[in-house]
Specification:
Structural class: mainly alpha
Number of helices: 11
Strand content: under 5%
Number of domains: 1
Radius of gyration: 19 Å
Number of strands: 0
Helix content: over 70%
Length: 275
């Protein structure tokens, strides 16, 4: 199976946009005023992002993977292979998650109240804040590798999957940018430095996509792509339930998160009907 140069650059561009959304979080950390409405909006956005990712995984990527693998290996072997690939995606993401210490783990995001009191920190606390921000940047960079691969694989599936998936991953990268920028800003007083760290941590996504592409391209076939789709579905489902939804609960009320989740799933279903 071949990928045209035009298709490659479009997918890489979308992956880069999704990754660099961490920079939006860095900007929001400086120019927005924390409050109930901001928290509700962020919570609903993260829930919506999770709904989109779960729907794409279960209604688009997994059926495509199962159809191709059953066609190649028959039933039940093809279906079982698709489920094993789905589980492998979850395990891969869980292992990466486990390798990152809890205090630096991207899904252990600080609350707005913690950020509000950061300005009163002592000199020693500021140094610790700076280290925390740098570790967040490193942790999120590692964490974003499989997300880059997910966006890239979604792009190969078609623009009807690539565009909403890019938006969903970009939305969930925004609070990660906040988590990086705020402690670095309060530690150094340098807005530009804090913003640049939050921005460039997202570059791990296109790098992850590029590495995955270079490794897999010589072997890429319809069967391998089907397995990759199932792995990516597992990655996105794990990210949604382990990171997105707990993070959304931190910023808002449970029912706002649920409303965002359901709206994301229903909206994605409606979009796919017309694309």
């Amino acid at each position: 199976m071949s990928v045209s140069l035009h298709q490659f650059w479009i997918v890489m561009g979308l992956t880069t946009i999704a990754g660099l959304a961490t920079g939006i979080g860095g900007l929001l950390a400086f120019f927005s005023r924390p409050g109930k409405d901001n928290g509700r909006f962020l919570s609903a956005s993260l829930g919506f992002s999770g709904g989109v990712m779960v729907f794409i995984s279960l209604a688009e990527l997994m059926p495509e993977a199962r159809h191709a693998l059953v066609g190649e290996y028959g039933s039940p072997h093809g279906g079982l292979l698709a489920m094993l690939a789905l589980a492998a995606g979850m395990v891969i993401t869980a292992v990466i998650d486990k390798m990152i210490p809890e205090v630096e783990n991207p899904h252990h995001v600080r609350s707005e109240e913690e950020f509000n009191h950061a300005g009163d920190a002592s000199e020693d606390e500021r140094r610790k804040l700076g280290r925390s921000g740098l570790m967040f940047a490193l942790a999120i960079g590692i964490h974003n590798f499989p997300e880059g691969l997910a966006t890239f694989a979604g792009g190969l599936s078609g623009m009807d999957v690539a565009l909403p998936l890019t938006c969903a991953i970009a939305l969930h990268n925004i609070p990660e940018g906040i988590a990086i920028a705020v402690p670095i800003f309060y530690a150094t007083g340098n807005r530009k430095k804090a913003f640049m760290y939050s921005l460039f941590s997202g570059l791990a996504e296109p790098v992850g996509a590029l590495i995955g592409f270079l490794i897999l391209m010589p072997f890429l076939s319809a069967t391998l792509l089907a397995i990759l789709f199932a792995i990516v579905a597992g990655i996105m489902i794990y990210i949604t339930f382990d990171e997105l939804l707990p993070m959304a609960e931190t910023y808002g009320q449970h029912h706002i998160v649920l409303a965002g989740l359901l709206l994301g799933m229903l909206g994605m279903g409606a979009v796919m009907e017309f694309m």
